Each structure stands twice: as structure tokens, then as C-alpha cells.
From TrEMBL:
Transmembrane segment boundaries: 21-47, 59-79, 91-109, 115-137, 149-171, 177-199, 260-282, 294-315, 327-344, 350-371, 392-410, 416-436
Annotated Major facilitator superfamily (MFS) profile domain residues: 25-438
Protein known as: Aromatic acid/H+ symport family MFS transporter
GO MF annotations in UniProt: carboxylic acid transmembrane transporter activity
Keyword Transmembrane among record annotations: yes
Main localization category: membrane
GO CC terms: plasma membrane
Compartments, as annotated in UniProt: Membrane
UniProt keyword annotations, A-Z: Membrane, Transmembrane, Transmembrane helix
Organism expressing this protein natively: Noviherbaspirillum galbum
A Pfam family the protein falls into: MFS_1
Length: 443
């Protein structure tokens, strides 16, 4: 009679090399994040054509521009508990279908209210997709290289944002803004059957939610490979928590310090990034440079962020991750101060923009890679999604604050310099995460 063998899924994944299927999962998550980035960035490229066609002011179009970010925040907050109950794959597939469908519907809008509504609904799906890709991939890759691999996945967001710009440039002259929105919806919907076929449910989720050993074993063999015993029973070595009320768990004594530090860090980081990336072209133009030069300098912020994400992710796998993230935020604050004290015509100005993007966006991506290891499987999706959702309010506030400060007559140096404060708060806040009692043993 065969004796059942107990297999720790976490240790099994950590003890093996990445399989071909795990690399495929990384590519699939990269593609989902890229389409997410496309639909998040799309309205910025279409706004001039829509305002001209409808004969409305930029201020009137502000409702459309703010609708998706609000949806992103709410979508992220709503999806976490659902994902921890019904599964990462289930909610991820629903999110992709949702934002693809409403991006298509956005192309049918004929007034500001309808377009704002559809962009808000699109944002709900976009906000739901990112936490699920983060959680799903983090639960399938070895912990020794998890931060690097998640950073690679997140570069898909920048790629998608850039590609939609090229796509808009190609489609707008001949086909108009509606065609761009249609493509933004068709691409994720066309990829959905591929995702349904190839993306697996998280094996850690299957264990924690007590699915059959047969399904867990088949999933583990398919994705990770190796000789999984046919009669094995499966466990995940991590602290056990009540899965029925995940938000309550996040704010329990065991996780409260970690949770609040992640929320405040993500909020402050996105406040800085969105104010800088959104208003830097205007600030540079107002300081005396042509708009073409202002746009090219601002693009360096995004380029630096892409490289910074990879470097920060690599270092996080080799040094205590919250210290790496904190150091990156400190570097961001320093380069922001250099920006504020320098002249836009200085030869070093563009370099400071590049390095500020390297540090700030690198730290922000690192935070996305760091959050999954702070919570056990039963509440991991909620932990990641609520961090991202709370942070999205920082992006909304940052975009709004930039306009208010400029309206109040603040100059370039003052607006930029004040951003060193939230960057420093982010650096201090992430260090506090190490004081969470269980953070060090949850992965």
C-alpha cells in the first residue's frame, strides 16, 4: 500500500529551475500588462482630435481624462477579495474581457458624458487586471528571482503605452480616433481565447482553497514540471489566516504596519510620478523650451523608469528588498531637487530627468514586486490590489495638484522641488514595512 507523500508547493517551485511553461506564463502576463498599458495611455493621444471634433475645451474634456484613473482605483480595490475567493485566473480573464469590451464601446460615444462613463467602466477592468497578473505570476516563479521576473513583466506596461502612441500616429490621420479605441479593444479580446487556454490558475490558490489533489497535481506537472507523486497531498508553508475577510486580515495586528506602509508608499510614489510625467512638458515649455524639446525630455523619464525597474528588481533579489526600494526613492528625491535647482537649458537637465525616472519608476515597480511577498496566499491578491488601488488615488491627486499649483502661480522650481517631500516620505514609509511582525516569513 502506497503511503501518501506531503508536498510543499512553495518549496517545490523554489527548488526547481524555471520550466518552459513558467517562461510562457511570464510572456502571457507581459502581454496582458502591455494591453493594460495601451488602454491606460490611449486617451492622452486622442484628446486633441476629440476636443476638436466635438468643439469642446480641454477643461470640459477633463471629465473623460479623470474617469479611467478613478475606475482604475475602484477596480483594483474591488477585485482583490474576489480574486482571493474565486481565483486569480477567473478574475483576470473577466478583467481582460471587461476592459476590452468597454474600450470598444468607447469608440461609439458621441458626447462627453457617454465617453466618460465608458472610460470609467474601462478603468474598472484595467484596475482589476494588474493586481491579478502580479499575484498570479508571483505565485508561480521561484522566490530567488521573483522581483526580477515581475519587473520584466511590468516593463510591458511602458511598452504598451509607447506602442499605442505609434498606433495612434498611424491611424489618426486616415481613420480617426474611434479606430484607435477599436484597436485598443480588439487586441485584448482577440488574445482572450489564448489566455483562457494557456494561463493556469494559481497552484497556491488551489491548495489554500482545498481543491482536489488530482487537479493540483496536474496543474503543478503542467506548469512547473518534474515528478509530482500521483498520491501526493499538498500544502503551502506560510502563516495561516482566516480567508473569509481578507481586508480585515490586512488591518489585523499581524499585518497592519506592513499594509499601511505599503499604501502610503505607493500613494506618495504615484503622486510624484503622475505629477512629473503629466505636467513636466508644460513646466519645461513655460520655462522657455519649445514643446517638441519638452516632450522629448519628458520621454526620458519613462525610458529611465523602464531601465530602473529592471535594475531595482535585480537588486531586490540580492539585497533586502525594502532597503533597495527606499534607496531608490531617496535617489529620486535627490534628482528631483537637482531638477528644481537647474536650468532647463543646462546640458545636465535631461540627465536629471532620466535619473529621476530611473529611481522613482524603478522604486514603484519594485514595490509591485515586493507586495506579494508580504502576505500569505489566502489574502495576497487583496493585499496587492488594495495597495495599487490606494496608490491610484495618489496618481489622481498628483495630476490634480499640478494644475492647482500652476493656477496659483507657482513656478517651475517650486513645483518640482516640493515633490522631493512625498518622495522622501515614500522612502521612510517602505522601511516601516520591515516592522510588520510576519512580513519576514511570508513569501
Amino acid at each position: 500500500m502506497n503511503t501518501a507523500q506531503t508536498l510543499d508547493v512553495r518549496a517545490y517551485i523554489n527548488g526547481r529551475k524555471m520550466s518552459g511553461y513558467q517562461w510562457l506564463l511570464l510572456i502571457l502576463c507581459f502581454l496582458i500588462v502591455a494591453t493594460d498599458g495601451m488602454d491606460v495611455a490611449i486617451m492622452g493621444f486622442l484628446a486633441p482630435d476629440i476636443t476638436k471634433e466635438w468643439g469642446i475645451t480641454k477643461a470640459a474634456f477633463g471629465a473623460v481624462m479623470s474617469a479611467a484613473p478613478i475606475g482604475l482605483a475602484i477596480g483594483a480595490i474591488l477585485v482583490g477579495p474576489l480574486s482571493d475567493r474565486y481565483g486569480r485566473k477567473t478574475l483576470l480573464m473577466c478583467a481582460v474581457a471587461w476592459f476590452g469590451a468597454f474600450s470598444l464601446l468607447s469608440a461609439t460615444a458621441n458626447d462627453v458624458f457617454t465617453l466618460s462613463l465608458f472610460r470609467f467602466l474601462t478603468g474598472l477592468g484595467l484596475g482589476a487586471a494588474m493586481p491579478n497578473t502580479t499575484t498570479l505570476l508571483s505565485e508561480y516563479v521561484p522566490e530567488r528571482s521573483r522581483s526580477t521576473l515581475l519587473a520584466i513583466m511590468f516593463t510591458g506596461f511602458n511598452l504598451g503605452s509607447a506602442l499605442v502612441g505609434f498606433g495612434a500616429a498611424a491611424l489618426l490621420p486616415q481613420h480617426g480616433w474611434r479606430a484607435v479605441l477599436m484597436v485598443g479593444g480588439i487586441i485584448p479580446l482577440a488574445c482572450l481565447p489564448l489566455y483562457l487556454w494557456l494561463v493556469p490558475e494559481s497552484v497556491r490558490f488551489l491548495v489554500v482553497r482545498r481543491f482536489s489533489a488530482d487537479r493540483i497535481g496536474r496543474t503543478l506537472r503542467r506548469v512547473v514540471g518534474g515528478d509530482v507523486p500521483a498520491n501526493a497531498s499538498f500544502v503551502v508553508s506560510e502563516p495561516s489566516v482566516q480567508s473569509g475577510q481578507p481586508v480585515v486580515t490586512l488591518l489585523s495586528s499581524a499585518y497592519r504596519k506592513t499594509t499601511l506602509s505599503l499604501w502610503s508608499t505607493y500613494f506618495m510614489g504615484l503622486l510624484v510620478i503622475y505629477l512629473l510625467s503629466g505636467w513636466l512638458p508644460t513646466l519645461i515649455k513655460d520655462a522657455g523650451l519649445p514643446i517638441e524639446r519638452a516632450a522629448s525630455i519628458t520621454a526620458l523619464f519613462q525610458l529611465g523608469g523602464t531601465v530602473g525597474a529592471l535594475v531595482v528588481g535585480y537588486l531586490m533579489d540580492r539585497v533586502k528588498p525594502n532597503k533597495v526600494i527606499s534607496a531608490a526613492y531617496v535617489g529620486g528625491a535627490a534628482f528631483i531637487l537637482m531638477l528644481s535647482s537647474g536650468s532647463v537649458t543646462s546640458s545636465m537637465f535631461a540627465t536629471y530627468v532620466l535619473l529621476a525616472g530611473f529611481c522613482m519608476s524603478g522604486a514603484q515597480t519594485g514595490l509591485n514586486a515586493f507586495a506579494p511577498q508580504c502576505y500569505p496566499t489566502a489574502v495576497r491578491a487583496t493585499g496587492v490590489s488594495w495597495m495599487q488601488g490606494m496608490g491610484r488615488f495618489g496618481s489622481i491627486f498628483g495630476s490634480f495638484a499640478g494644475g492647482v499649483l500652476l493656477t496659483m502661480g507657482w513656478g517651475f522650481a517650486s513645483v518640482i522641488a516640493i515633490l522631493a517631500i512625498p518622495a522622501t516620505i515614500a522612502a521612510l514609509s517602505i522601511i516601516i514595512s520591515s516592522l510588520g511582525r510576519r512580513q519576514a516569513i511570508v513569501a
